[in-house]
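Exercise 3.2. Students should predict the tertiary structure of the chain below and write it as structure tokens, then compare their answer with the key that follows.

Predict this chain's 3D structure.
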Amino acid sequence: MHSSITTKRITSWYAWAGLATILIIGPIVYFLMSYQFIAGSLETEAEINAHIVSQLISKNPEMWTYEQLRLQELLSRRQLGNLETQRIVDTKNRVVAESLNVLRPPLIMRSANLLDSGVIVARVEIYRSIRPLLIHTAIVALLGLLLGLITFVPFLVLPLQAISRAEDELRKSEEKYRNLFDSSIDGVYQLNAGGVFTMMNQAGATIFGYEHSEEIVGTNVLEYWRDSKDRDVYWAELKIKKSVSAYQVSAKKKTGEPIELELSSRILEDEKGNFLGIQGILRDVTERTRLTERLRALSLTDELTHLYNRRGFFTMAEHLLKMADRSEKGVFLLYADLDGLKEINDTFGHQEGDRALIEVADILKENYRKSDIIARMGGDEFVVIPVGFAGNNVEMIYARLGKNLDIHNTKMNRSYKLSLSAGIAYYESGNPCSLDELLMQADQLMYEQKRQKKKS
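Answer key:
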């Protein structure tokens, strides 16, 4: 707005200056040039007349002053109509002869000396009225006023109208931007070089738990980061790329409540490349993140037992084997099968069979740590890793599982007992194998135990 006012003032000043130039300087220049022309012509005319009269004086040096009629006729014949009068004045300022015109002031006069043998005996004076010049100058001024008004209108009014239209367009554009800014469902923000919020719309303020956008302006963005490492990684990537899109970070509200944000930001720099701040859009993706994590958990979890399913087992176990390789520490894997599940389903129904599977899952969870990976691979098969490490006694691992299974059967008053056949395979970090190969080894050992049970 200040810039607009300044522009209007400058435009008005130039317009008035142009008008003043036409109204004042134009007539003055015309008058001065015309005056100089008249003065010059009078000087020339005076010199010519003085030359003619001097010739007359040289022919009759004693009597020339008495030839008034002849001199008057000579002067009248050479004057410029009624606008001019001429006279001859002697050295004592006595008028010897003069034309009869009466001039209206103001007047301009030029003279030239009359010589007799090189001696000044009189002078010729020529007078001319400059009233016509003044009238002409006034006409020029009036024409200048008319021209000035014609020039003044487009030079002042039209630019001012254009400036006003530009202001209206700018105001509408600002209102449109402000409406978009305020009505956006995403947060729109700007930080200065010190990390202080200089701009935030209402949606962004609401995300951080503020009722009004003015409340968050002036606070530092560091107050809303949950993890300094997360912040450092984000800042390093932003500095390199100058902008990031859909970058997810962990943040917190003003109350400390954790939230997940998706940022699309860019660095602001001046023409010299100096850092000015950051500008961008933020979106609250807390619910989306929770839903994603829930869906991921569902995709990795067995719906009946809430253990890992086959996909979940492979996802987690691959990571565990890599850790074993790095630590150079071998681990044991247990592959177990619920004996007689078909008979339980046929005799007591599938609902009882499901209950038996759930009880096996509970026994495994009680027997092993929360950090261990326990999974139902499908049907009546279960896997646990690690059930032990290098140096552990495999028989003791079998025995502990069997003991917990017996304790559970003792507690349950029913016509059948839960029984597991199990095989334990060893993953050697110095001689690694694939997870499928390790499962195959344990599966073979499990079926060997199952055959031994049938024989006995």
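Discussion points: The first strand starts at residue 84 and ends at 90. The chain is about 55% helix and 25% strand.
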